[in-house]
């Protein structure tokens, strides 16, 4: 075996030595003499072997081409691509090519040439025209440098006018020869290529202040500078600056000229009416010339249907201007009697109503009558004077932070200014008060009753009277002798006799709209609008009753003094049933939510309450009383009873109702229950309210 291996190594060495001449292009495994390769090493050596290709390979690290390099014809993308760079190479050699965002560059004879970029025009310092050609016109190329340009021996300076006449030929610019130059063409640059182009299209003729035009024919020009001569102008031309100092202008030119411009001399003088003027130099004189001829003071210009005519003025002062069905104007004597049914009232001015007027002769008097009470309603829903269970975003108005006063039967509120009764408008038919919840000026404190006033001197007009100017200001309960169920003798006292509407009996030192104090307000100069109950700091609620497990309590926290409506709300317990045997009077289902809470400002209307309750009993003598009470949870104001007198199960309904005299302040009606003989009673509820319901009716 060892001998056979030696023979294989010798054969491999002979095979390698047979390629001695092109060995530089072969791949050597770099094995040392005497090495015995494994099978894997043999496989790797043959896999990495590089055969000689007839010339050294061009590697990615760089090479020099010794022959031409060709690419496939472009199809889809170019056959050769120079990768663009951000800037030029730092070291340049003649023949280098590179691309940057500025374009294509080449290094030639130690100089960078470029960029080669579409749309970049060449710049020429001098242009020499050789050969015979005929060209009459302007050499106007904005890319020519300011140096003089020589064309057939004629030197043209940029911006000047050159007349060049020669036989047909060509123009040579550096190494570029432009052939086919035609008489009447101009030398121009289009897309970076110099050429000879015909003049066509329309444009503008711009003239300097010293230029003069003599008898030109122009089509839709723009003229500027000083213009003299005779012009035939077509189209709709205009003049830009300058002035027409002399000459004759025809065509539609004059309709586009601003004759009053300072550049046109600020045309002065008097243009007769026959020529389209007014025949005057002042506005007063001009209107006098254009109007019909007057006859006396007080004349009225009247359109007759075909012309303006004059109706002589009425100097007696006892007639009114009228017209008949044909539109003919005339002065008529006013006579007869009538009734004023409406009038526009200016905010802050109002109408004063007092006294009587009864006479058949001329005299001055005032109209008798009384001023109307406030025309709006307090509300918590925007632009909604009547609130229901869905008024605030589809839901009841619970815990609202903005109090509003909206138009209802009228759009004004009376107030007393110390001398007369006046009318304020309800701006945009709604004024607001963003109530303050924080312990700062104007804070509306939870569990307090507040009066709402209209104050003429306040920006938003409405405000809440309270005890403090710095925060934590209470309502009725903070007034002298006041509570949540009784008015005090100070700022919560109401005067219903001095004016024809309710006002403040005493001065209001603090009356807040938001954090702004509208006080102090003198006695009788604030108009009473109503009363609210704050169920949270800076919050008022108006929530009608509903059905819910344990009862859907009602909280009616907004009461209007004026424009009251009938309100009826019901609360029912949707629980299927509950069982009790207590002999003491307790809240229905032991829940304070079987209740209607409300506030009133003055004792002007009574209220009604009814309660129906179904229950079942099984034992003889079992039953109970079911009813309600105002402001009590332990004693009935009114109740009905049911009781089992025999054996077996019994189902019955107890009903009760009551009328309450007017009350003031914060109150509640609570549903109550008690059992007979400490025997079990099963009380029935239900979503429909057929088995249990507390209903209260009042005006608010």
Descriptive notes:
With 700 residues, this protein is mainly beta. It has three helices and 49 strands. The strands form 14 sheets. Strands 23, 28, 29, 32, 33, 34, 35, 37, 38, 41, 42, 44, 45 and 47 form a 14-stranded mixed beta sheet that branches. Strands 36, 39, 40, 43, 46, 48 and 49 form a seven-stranded mixed beta sheet that branches. Strands 1-2-3 form a three-stranded antiparallel beta sheet, with no helix packed on it. A hairpin with a 2-residue loop joins strand 2 and strand 3. The longest helix is centred in the first third of the chain and has 16 residues. The N terminus is likely disordered.
Through-space gap between termini: 122 Å
Instruction: Give a short account of the largest sheet.
Output: 14 strands, mixed
The helix fraction, in percent, is: under 10%
Model regions low in confidence, pLDDT < 50 over at least 5 residues:
1-25, 120-148, 157-177, 188-194, 196-222, 229-238, 250-256, 343-369
> Kindly state the mean pLDDT as a whole number?
76
Indicate the structural class. mainly beta
- Rg, rounded, reads 53 Å
Strand runs, count:
49
Shape: flat
- DSSP helix count? 3
The percent range for strand residues is: 25-35%
């Amino acid at each position: 075996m060892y001998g056979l291996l030696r023979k294989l190594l010798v054969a491999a060495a002979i095979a390698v030595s047979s390629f001695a001449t092109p060995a530089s292009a072969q791949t050597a495994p770099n094995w040392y003499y005497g090495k015995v390769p494994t099978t894997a090493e043999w496989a790797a050596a043959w896999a990495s072997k590089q055969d000689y290709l007839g010339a050294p390979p061009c590697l990615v690290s760089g090479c020099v081409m010794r022959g031409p390099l060709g690419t496939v014809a472009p199809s889809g993308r170019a056959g050769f691509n120079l990768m663009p760079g951000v800037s030029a190479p730092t070291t340049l050699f003649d023949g280098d090519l590179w691309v940057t965002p500025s374009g294509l560059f080449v290094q030639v004879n130690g100089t960078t040439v470029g960029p080669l970029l579409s749309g970049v025009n060449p710049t020429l310092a001098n242009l020499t025209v050789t050969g015979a050609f005929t060209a009459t016109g302007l050499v106007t190329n904005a890319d020519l440098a300011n140096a003089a340009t020589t064309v057939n021996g004629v030197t043209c300076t940029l911006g000047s006018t050159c007349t060049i006449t020669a036989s047909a030929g060509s123009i040579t610019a550096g190494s570029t020869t432009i052939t086919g130059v035609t008489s009447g063409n101009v030398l121009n640059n289009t897309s970076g290529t110099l050429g000879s182009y015909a003049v066509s299209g329309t444009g503008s003729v711009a003239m300097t202040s010293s230029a003069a035009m003599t008898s030109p024919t122009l089509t839709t020009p723009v003229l500027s500078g000083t213009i003299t001569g005779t012009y035939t102008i077509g189209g709709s031309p205009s003049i830009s600056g300058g002035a027409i100092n002399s000459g004759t202008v025809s065509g539609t030119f004059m309709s586009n000229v601003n004759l009053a411009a300072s550049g046109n001399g600020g045309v002065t003088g008097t243009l007769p009416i026959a020529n389209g003027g007014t025949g005057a130099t002042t506005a007063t004189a001009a209107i006098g010339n254009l109007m019909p001829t007057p006859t006396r003071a007080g004349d009225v210009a009247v359109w007759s249907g075909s012309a303006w005519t004059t109706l002589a003025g009425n100097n007696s002062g006892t007639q009114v201007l009228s017209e008949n069905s044909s539109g003919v104007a005339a002065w008529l004597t006013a006579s007869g009697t009538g009734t004023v049914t409406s009038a526009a009232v200016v905010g802050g001015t109002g109408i004063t109503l007092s006294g009587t007027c009864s006479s058949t002769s001329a005299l001055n008097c005032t109209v008798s009558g009384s001023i109307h009470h406030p025309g709006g309603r307090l509300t918590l829903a925007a632009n909604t004077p009547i609130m229901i269970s869905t008024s605030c975003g589809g839901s009841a108005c619970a815990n609202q932070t903005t109090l509003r006063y909206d138009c209802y039967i009228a759009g004004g509120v009376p107030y007393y200014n110390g001398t007369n009764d006046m009318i304020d408008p309800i701006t945009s038919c709604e004024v607001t008060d963003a109530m303050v919840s924080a312990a700062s000026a104007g804070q509306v404190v939870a569990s307090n009753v507040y009066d709402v006033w209209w104050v003429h001197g306040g920006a938003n007009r409405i405000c809440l009277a309270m005890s403090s100017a710095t925060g934590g200001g209470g309502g009725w309960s903070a007034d002298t002798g006041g509570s949540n169920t009784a008015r005090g003798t100070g700022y919560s006292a109401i005067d219903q006799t001095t004016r024809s509407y309710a006002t403040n009996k005493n001065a209001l030192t603090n009356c807040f709209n938001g954090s702004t104090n509208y006080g102090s307000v003198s006695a009788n100069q604030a108009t009473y609008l109503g009363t609210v109950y704050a169920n949270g700091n800076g919050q008022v609620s108006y929530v009608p009753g509903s059905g819910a497990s344990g009862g859907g309590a009602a909280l009616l926290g907004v009461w209007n003094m004026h424009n009251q409506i009938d309100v009826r709300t019901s609360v029912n317990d949707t629980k299927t049933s509950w069982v009790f045997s207590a002999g003491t009077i307790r809240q229905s289902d032991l829940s304070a939510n079987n209740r209607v809470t409300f506030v009133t400002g003055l004792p002007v209307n009574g209220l009604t309450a009814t309660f129906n309750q179904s229950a079942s009993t099984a034992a003889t003598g079992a039953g109970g009383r079911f009813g309600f009470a105002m402001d009590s949870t332990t004693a009935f104001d009114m109740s009905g009873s049911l009781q089992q007198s025999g054996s077996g199960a019994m189902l019955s309904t107890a009903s009760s109702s009551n009328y309450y005299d007017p009350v003031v302040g914060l109150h509640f009606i609570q549903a109550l229950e008690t059992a007979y003989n400490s025997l079990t009673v099963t009380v029935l509820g239900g979503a429909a309210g057929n088995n249990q319901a507390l209903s209260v009716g009042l005006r608010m």
